[in-house]
Write a structure and sequence with these properties.
This protein is α/β, with parallel strands linked by helices. The protein has 29 helices and 15 strands. It has 4 domains: 3-129, Arc Repressor Mutant, subunit A (Orthogonal Bundle), CATH 1.10.10; 134-315, Tex N-terminal region-like (Orthogonal Bundle), CATH 1.10.3500.10; 329-474, Nucleotidyltransferase, domain 5 (2-Layer Sandwich); 641-716, Nucleic acid-binding proteins (OB fold (Dihydrolipoamide Acetyltransferase, E2P), Beta Barrel), CATH 2.40.50.
Length: 717
C-alpha cells in the first residue's frame, strides 16, 4: 500500500462527525510529532497508523521499512513516546477550553490563542489566570473593590494615594503581585533566570547522621542546571531520607527582582514605587517558590532521563553478551561454609545432576566428584559465579587434569539469587532448593545470557545507578523496550524458548507465550511457523507481528529458520524459480544468489528495503548477531584484596557503567572503579563512549582502601 493511498484511506476520508473529529486530531498529532522530531510528516503519519493498528516497534522497524522510510527502533520509539505526549498535550488543551467555557469566559480570540500554543509550559502559563483557585490575598482584595487602585498602580498613574490606608495599598499590591506572577512573560523571565543562575545549596536536616554517606554533599554550592545527573539524584535521595535540606535558587533575590522589573517599571513616582513593592512580593512569595518547584521537577526529569538512558544502554550490552551456545555445562555457585553448589546442564539448559563440593577442606573428594561429572555428562564448559570465593574456586578448577579441553569462565551472578527465589524458578525447578536454582541460572547465563536474564526483573540485574530513585513508570517502559528489542533482534528458537523469552517476542506477550509452551508440551515440536495458528487465541495479527522473529530449526520450510517473514516467502520462492533451484539450494549455495536482480521483485507490497533485508538474511541465515564467545582468565594468583597494591597492572571485565565512571570485575568479589577522570587525561566525553559492559580492560591500581574494600583504577588504553 503506497503512502498516498494510505493517507487518503485513513485520515482524509469523509464520514461521520466522530470520524471527522478523529481525523482532525490525528492530523494534529502527526503535525506535533513530525515538528518535534523534525521528521517527514508522511513517514510519521504512516508510522503512527501502524502503531495505532497495534503493530510493535520491532515489527515496524524490521518489516515495514517502505512505509516509514526506513526508521529504526530508536526513531520509532521516539515517535511512540512523542505521540503519547501529543495525546496528553491536546487532551489538556480540551480540559482547559472546557474550564474557561464553564466560567463563561471563552471567546473566539481565546480559542485561537490556545490553538496556536505548542508547548505544555506555555499552555499552563496561559491558563493560570483562568485556573480556579482557592481564595487568595488578591481575590480578597478584589472583593473589597481594590482592583481599580491596582490598575492605577500597574499604569503608574501619577495620582494621590494619601486617601488610601496602608491596608488598602497592601490589598492593591496583592492584586498586582498576583497579576505579575500569573503573567506568562514574567514567568518565562524568572524561569530563564533560574536556568542561568540557580545554584544548589545544602545544609543539615533534622535527620542528619554522623559520618553520613551524604557528607560530601553537605555545604556544596554549584550551578544547578549543569550539575551531573547522579549528583541531582543523590541530593533528592538525601532530602527524601531527611538528612539534607536542599534548595535550587539564585544566590541573591535582588538581581532576580531587577531582572523581573527591567522595562516593566517606567516612571519614578509614588505609584511606581508601589508597583516595585508588588513585584518584589510577587517574586519572593509567588514566583520564586513556584518556579523553584518547576525547576526541581525539570532537574529531576533531566536526571531521570540520563540515568534511565545509561541503565538501558548497560542492559542492552549485558543482554547482548556473547553466548557460549548449545554446549553441556557444569556450573558452580562458589561458597566456603556451605560448600560450592555444582550442577550439570545439557546443551539446552536442562538440569541433569546436582552436588556439593568443599575445595577448601576436602580437595581430593572435590576433584573426584568434578572429574566424574565432567566424564559422565560429557561436559564442555565450566561456569563459575563471580561472588565470594569465586577466584579461589576458579584456580582450584584449573589445577584439575581433565581428560579433554574444558572452557572455564567466570559468570556475573548479579540477580541469580533473585531468580532462585522467584515464581519463574519455582515453576522451572520446583523440586530443588534455591541454592541449586542459583547454580542452574549461572550455568544457563553462560550458555545464553539473553535467554536467562529475561527471567529476572531488569532492575535486579545490577547495572545502572539510582534505579530506585528515578521515575519508575518511565524506567519500566524503557527497560521493557530494551529487553524486547534485544530479544527480537536475536530471534528465538520456537521449540526450546522459555515462556519468559517468548513473552518478549513482538505481538505475543505472557498469555500467548504460555499457550505456545502448553501447545508444545501437548503436541510436540513445531514443524512449521503456520502451526502457530493452531495455538489457543493465536490469531492472524499475532502471527503477522511475531512470525518473523521465531525460528524453527529443521522445520518443513527452510525459510522458517530465517528472519524472512512468511508474507514474503512467495518472493523468495520466485527468486529460486528464476534461477532454477529450490529454496533450500538458494539459501545454501551463494552462487545461486549472485545474479539476482532485486529490482525485478519490487511491487506495491515489497520495496527495495525489504528485498535487501531478504538477501542479507539468505546470505547468513539464522545468524546470531551477538559477538563470538571468548574464554577469559583474569589476574592469575590474585585472589584477595590484600594482594592488590598501588601501581599494579590488572585485567578486568566492565560490569557496570554510570555517569561518573565504570566498575570493573577483577576476578574476585571486590570490583574496582575507573572514575571518569581516570579514563584519559582531559577526558570530557561520556563514559559509555569509551567503555561498554563485558568489555575486557587493563588498568593501573591508583589506590586501595582495604577497610572500605574500594579499588581506584586508571584505564590503560
Amino acid at each position: 500500500m503506497g503512502k498516498t493511498h494510505y493517507q487518503k484511506k485513513r485520515y482524509d476520508r469523509k464520514g461521520t462527525n466522530e470520524e471527522i473529529v478523529f481525523n482532525k486530531m490525528m492530523q494534529e498529532y502527526i503535525k506535533y510529532v513530525s515538528e518535534k522530531l523534525m521528521l517527514d510528516a508522511t513517514d510519521v503519519e504512516n508510522t503512527i497508523k501502524l502503531i495505532e493498528d497495534g503493530c510493535t516497534v520491532a515489527f515496524i522497524a524490521r518489516y515495514r521499512k517502505e512505509l516509514t522510510g526506513g526508521f529504526d527502533e530508536v526513531i520509532i520509539n521516539s515517535i511512540v513516546n512523542t505521540l503519547k505526549k501529543a495525546k496528553t498535550f491536546f487532551a489538556r488543551k480540551q480540559v482547559i477550553l472546557s474550564s474557561i467555557e464553564s466560567q463563561g469566559l471563552l471567546t473566539e480570540e481565546l480559542k485561537e490563542s490556545i490553538a496556536t500554543i505548542e508547548d505544555i509550559t506555555e499552555l499552563e502559563d496561559f491558563y493560570l489566570p483562568y485556573k480556579p483557585k482557592r481564595r487568595t490575598r488578591a481575590t480578597i482584595a478584589k472583593e473589597k473593590g481594590l482592583e481599580p487602585l491596582a490598575m492605577a498602580i500597574v499604569g503608574e498613574r501619577n495620582i494621590s494615594l494619601a486617601n488610601f490606608t496602608d491596608v488598602e495599598l497592601q490589598g492593591a499590591r496583592d492584586i498586582v503581585a498576583e497579576w505579575v506572577s500569573e503573567n506568562p512573560v514574567s514567568r518565562q523571565k524568572i524561569r530563564n533566570y533560574f536556568k542561568r543562575n540557580a545554584v544548589i545549596k545544602t545544609s543539615k536536616a533534622k535527620g542528619y547522621k554522623e559520618n553520613s554517606k551524604y557528607e560530601e554533599l553537605l555545604g556544596i554550592k554549584q550551578q544547578a542546571f549543569t550539575a551531573p545527573s547522579h549528583r541531582i539524584l543523590a541530593l533528592f535521595r538525601a532530602e527524601a531520607e531527611g538528612e539534607l535540606k536542599v534548595s535550587f535558587s539564585p544566590q541573591e533575590d535582588y538581581y532576580a527582582i531587577e531582572y523581573l522589573t527591567k522595562g516593566f517599571i517606567k516612571r519614578d513616582n509614588f505609584t511606581s514605587q508601589q508597583k516595585l513593592y508588588a513585584c518584589e512580593d510577587a517574586y519572593k512569595r509567588l514566583l520564586a517558590p513556584s518556579i523553584e518547584n518547576e525547576f526541581r521537577a525539570l532537574l529531576k526529569e533531566k536526571a531521570d532521563e540520563k540515568a534511565i538512558q545509561v541503565f538501558s544502554k548497560n542492559l542492552r550490552q549485558l543482554l547482548m553478551a556473547s553466548p557460549l551456545g548449545e554446549k553441556r555445562v557444569l556450573a558452580i555457585d562458589p561458597g566456603i561454609r556451605t560448600g560450592c553448589k555444582v550442577v550439570c546442564l545439557n546443551a539446552n539448559g536442562r538440569l541433569l545432576s546436582h552436588d556439593v563440593i568443599f575445595p577448601l577442606t576436602n580437595a581430593t573428594e572435590s576433584i573426584r566428584i568434578l572429574t566424574y561429572l565432567v566424564k559422565t555428562y560429557d561436559i564442555e564448559a565450566i561456569a563459575i559465579g563471580n561472588g565470594t570465593f569465586s577466584k579461589e574456586t576458579e584456580e582450584f578448577i584449573r589445577t584439575i587434569q581433565f581428560d579433554k579441553k574444558i572452557i572455564i569462565s567466570l559468570v556475573n551472578e548479579n540477580g541469580a539469587s533473585i531468580y532462585s527465589a522467584s515464581e519463574v524458578a519455582r515453576e522451572e525447578l520446583g523440586d530443588y532448593d534455591i541454592t541449586v536454582r542459583g547454580a542452574v541460572s549461572i550455568g544457563r547465563r553462560l550458555q545464553d545470557p539473553l535467554a536467562e536474564l529475561v527471567k529476572i526483573e531488569p532492575k535486579s540485574i545490577g547495572v545502572g545507578q539510582y534505579q530506585h530513585d528515578v521515575n519508575q513508570t518511565l524506567l519500566q517502559e524503557s527497560l521493557h523496550q530494551t529487553v524486547e528489542s534485544c530479544v527480537n533482534q536475536v530471534g528465538v528458537e520456537l521449540n526450546t524458548a522459555s515462556t519468559q523469552l517468548l513473552s518478549y517476542i513482538s505481538g505475543i506477550g505472557p498469555v500467548l507465550a504460555k499457550n505456545i509452551v502448553e501447545y508444545r508440551n501437548e503436541n510436540g515440536a513445531f514443524s512449521s511457523r503456520k502451526d502457530l495458528l493452531k495455538v489457543k487465541r493465536f490469531g492472524q495479527k499475532a502471527f503477522e507481528q511475531s512470525a518473523g522473529f521465531l525460528r524453527i530449526r529443521n522445520g518443513v520450510n527452510p525459510l522458517d529458520n530465517t528472519a524472512v517473514h512468511p508474507e514474503r516467502y512467495g518472493v523468495v520462492e520466485q527468486m529460486a524459480k528464476d534461477v532454477g533451484c529450490s529454496v533450500k539450494e538458494l539459501i545454501e549455495d551463494s552462487s545461486k544468489r549472485e545474479n539476482l536482480n532485486l529490482y525485478k521483485y519490487i511491487d506495491g507490497n515489497c520495496g527495495l528495503h525489504t528485498l535487501i533485508d531478504i538477501l542479507n538474511e539468505l546470505n547468513k541465515p539464522s545468524r546470531d548477531i551477538r559477538t563470538k564467545f571468548e574464554e577469559v582468565t583474569l589476574n592469575k594468583g590474585v585472589n584477595k584484596l590484600e594482594q592488590i597494591k598501588e601501581g599494579q597492572i590488572l585485567e578486568g571485565i566492565v560490569t557496570n557503567i554510570t555517569v561518573f565512571g565504570a566498575f570493573v570485575d577483577l576476578g574476585m568479589h571486590v570490583s574496582g572503579l575507573i572514575h571518569k577522570s581516570k579514563i584519559a587525561d582531559g577526558f570530557k566525553g561520556e563514559v559509555g563512549e569509551v567503555l561498554s559492559i563485558n568489555q575486557r580492560v587493563r588498568a593501573e591500581v591508583l589506590s586501595v582502601n582495604y577497610e572500605k574494600k574500594r579499588v581506584e583504577l586508571r584505564l590503560i588504553l
